[in-house]
Structure formats: structure tokens, C-alpha cells
Amino acid sequence: MELDAVTSKVLAAIDAGGFQQEGAYNLRYNGQALCHGDSEHIKIKKKEGKPGIDVFISSGAQGEQVHIPVVISKSGMSDIVYNDFYIEEGADVVIVAGCGIHNSGCNETRHDGVHAFHVGKNAKVVYEEKHYGEGEGTGENILNPVTQIDLEEGAVFTLDTVQIRGVDSTQRRTDVDMGPGSRLYVMEKLMTHDSQEAVSNMEIRMNGAGSLAQIVSRSVAKGSSRQTFHPNAVGNALCKAHIQCDSIIMDQAQVCSIPEIDARNVDAQIIHEAAIGRINTEQLLKLRSFGMTEEEAENVVIDNFLH
Amino acid sequence: MLEVRNLTYEVVENGEKITIVKDIDFTVGDGEMLVITGPNGGGKSTVAKLLMGVLKATGGEILLDGKPIQDMDIDQRAKAGIGYAFQQPPVFKGMTIRRLLNLAAGEELPEHVCCDLLSNVGMCAREYLDREVDATLSGGERKRVEIATVLAKSHRVCIFDEPEAGIDLWSFSMLVKEFEKIHSRKRETLLLISHQEKIIRMADRILIIKDGLVKECGNAKEILPMLFGEGRECACMGRKGGQIYGTGCGNE
Prior knowledge:
The complex is a heterodimer. Chain A is mainly β. In chain A, strands 3, 4, 7, 10, 12, 14, 16, 18, 20 and 21 form a 10-stranded mixed β-sheet that branches. Chain A has a 6-stranded parallel β-barrel with strand order 1-5-8-11-9-6. The longest helix of chain A is centred in the last third of the chain and has 13 residues, at 294-306. In chain A, helix 2 (281-288) crosses helix 3. Helices cover 10% and strands 56% of the residues of chain A. Chain A has 3 helices and 22 strands. Chain B has helices at residues 44-52, 74-80, 97-105, 111-119, 125-128, 139-151, 169-185, 197-202, 220-228, and strands spanning 2-13, 16-28, 33-37, 59-64, 67-68, 82-85, 92-96, 132-133, 157-161, 189-193, 205-210, 213-219, 237-240, 243-246. A 6-stranded mixed β-sheet of chain B has the order 6-9-10-3-11-12, with helices on both faces. In chain B, strands 2-1-4-5 form a 4-stranded antiparallel β-sheet, covered by helices on one side.
């Protein structure tokens, strides 16, 4: 299927690896599945009774990818989608999601994506989710992702979320239940500008013995934007967790970081760190000594911090 | 040629004017090596920062090839051909050494060039290229990376502020060889702030700064005997284990 220029541009922004109509994929466009394909080990089925898809990933999937981007180019649209992922024991898969809004009108455009992952024993999942907004319109772009992850014994889940620009408001909710020996790696990167607002709430429940979670959040707040981070690691068993929230604050922005740790077992080892600060002047001076202007040096520091 | 005339830097603290350096004068010819030495807290690093534009002079002139640069910003001075190794380099969380070298060079360097740059400052390149310039590197490792960033590009004038600080003896001898190599090419003017005898002995010209003032300035033949006891002693300096120190300033 031929995609128009706007869709292709938005897809390029949210799917760095390049969206292709081959293998397992599903492109949701303005609230409808525009095109989709299955592979031998990954089957995508449209939900009945509510919008969204069920993605079945068999244990035969080893190193495979599935791309399920969402593009909205209709100003004023409010889209909600429920996607469920069933990953069989031992599968090894990369799921590339993300949502991009091109808003050329004056109306609020919104996408709420509710994603649930049921990850079987010893399966390995990398989930990449990029959020992006653009367009010459004045309407707000709103993205509210909800991510629910259930990890069985020995499963490994990497959650890589990025919100770079153009999203006026986001309310992010992530809930994870971890079985014995499972591992979770979260890397959340976020940049807000102008008067944008971002809230990220996360609860990681380490229920199984030997579970391990590492949550890293890095953000840059510019203009008069506001950010709130509230990751909570709950240790219900012998487990280890490390939460790290680092933010660069600029201009008149506001950042609130509330890492919470909650040990409910004597063998739970949970650590948190949080730091908010302006761009390091010495880093800027060093980069300027290479011949960069102040603005170029700032961009390098931010780019480096978020990548 | 780099000419410095009446270079002065004053700050106001609690309503009181404090002179950090005053009326510093010197000239370094093309391809020459000038070492600035003197007691801690005497103003050497301030002079280096004023030359690079990290600090702005409150008086005097800095001329590069006859053109005044004292009003230029740090990036403009870099573009004019001045390279600068900070005494205490910053950490860059998330930035690999390879990327920092590329940024310093202003281009993507081939891997073997990055490796050579690190090897020349005594680092095993393969182990370090993809490491981050963060707190996991020791002070000495960061310092050597800092020096490599200046060597990543050719400059008219290279300024190194205490390149020996925090570096082990083996790496220091590699560094000395590198400075000797650069100096022998006579393509770049070298200006080093140093207390190390080995470095000071390489200099064509030596400047001694104490209490913000030039105490002595001359060619190596004139100044070395004052520093290392081969002739008359310089009144403001002492010597200990290959390094020279200010005397009577309380910082030794």
C-alpha cells in the first residue's frame, strides 16, 4: 500500500528502524487498521467488540520484529486502542510501537493506547515506544499510554520509551508484575517544551524471588513546561531494584521527581536516586572550546543526555 | 604569534575589587613552546582561561597573528585556532569517548585515528573508545581524554593547563613524548601551565607568575638556572621531586 508523505514522515519519526510492510506489522491510521501482515511466528488479529489488536507471538519467534505504529493526521480526532500481546515461553522478539500525530487544525487530537503484555517463561521482549507530534495547527496533541506487563518466571522485558517533541500533554501509566527470576529494564526519555505537560506514573511489583528491575528516567524540560515522575518499586520478595531519575531543567520549566521504594520483604534490596539540575556550565564551556556556539553546545548536551 | 599585553583580570567580591592577574605581558612565536609556572594560586590558570575566553579580561589585549581576540567568545577563539585542555575536565554522562573526540575534531574520525589519539596519551584505545566520559573514569583517565580532545584537531595555539595533574608516571612519560613530537614539528604554538621539571625543561620560553604578576620571563637558558639551582635561585620558587613549588605561599 502506498503511504502519503505526511504518514511516511511521521512513521520515520516514530519508527527509527524504518516501517516496512513486510513480516508482522499493523499500521493504525486515523482510528482504523490501514494495513497489516503476519509472519510465520507472529499473528495479529483484530479485536472484536473494542478497538485494537491481539498479537500472538509463538516460541518459534527468535529475534523477530513486529511493528505496530499509530498515525493520526485528522485534527480533532480522539482515538483509543487496546492492544494485547501474548508472548509464548522462550520467544525472543522486538516490538516497535509508537504514535505520531500530525495536527494541522485547531482542535485537540488525542490517542490513548492501552497495551497489555503477557510474557511467558524465559521469553525475551524489547518494546520500543516513541511518541511524537507535529503539524502547523494550533490544536493540542495528547498522548496517554497505559502499559501493563506481566512477566512469568525468567522473562526479560526491556521497555524503551521516548517522547521527543510536539506532545502537549501526556499522562503515562505503567504497571508491571514480575515473576521469579524475571528482569525488567526501563529506559524512559522525555523532552517537553513551551507549555507542555508530562506525567509518568509507574509501579513495579517484584513478586517473585530473584526478580530484578532497573528503571532509568532521563528528561529535559524547556520553556514553561512541567514534568512529574513517580516511579514506585515494590519489593514483595527477595529482589533487587534500582530507580534513577535525572532531569535537566531550563528556562521557566518545572520538574517534580518522586522516586518511591516500598520493601515488603526483608530480602528486598531497592535503591533510588534522583537529580534535577540545569545544564552543566563546564560541559558547555568544553563544547564551546571545540568551536560550537552556546546553542549548538546546549543541543549536543541535551541530545547526548537523551540518547 | 600570540601576544599578550597588560592582561588584567579583576573581580569584585563583597564590594571589594580583587586583582587576580595584573599587567601580564608575553609573546609566543609560531611553533614555540612557552611554559608558565609558579606557585599555586598565583594566577597561571587564570591567564590560560583568559587566553581561551573562559574568563573575559577586564583589561589589556590578546593578539593572535596581530588581531585582537580579547573580545571574542570562547567558540570564536576556538575557530580562530586556539585549543584548550581544561585543568579539571567535566564529565559527560552518556557521551562516549569516541563521540567526544569526533566533536572535538569537528568531523567523524576513522576508528584508527581515535585509537592513535588515545594511545598517544597512554590509553589502551580498544578498551576506552566506547566508554562514557563519566564518573566511572578516574581523574587521570579523564585528564588524558581531555588532552586527546585537543590533539584531535590541529590548532594555531594549544593551551594545556597542568596536563600532568593526576596522571601516573608511565602516562606522563607518554605525554611528554607527545609534547616533544608536537614541539619538534614546529607547526603549533604550545602554551603549557606546569610544575613539572620535564615539561619546563622542554620550553623555549618560560614565564613565572606569582601573586598575579610576571616575576620572570625569558628564554629557557635564562630561566632554567633560576628554577633548578644551576645558577642563581629564583626568589619565589622551590624544588621537590621533579616538581617546582612556590615558597612561602602556604600551598606547597
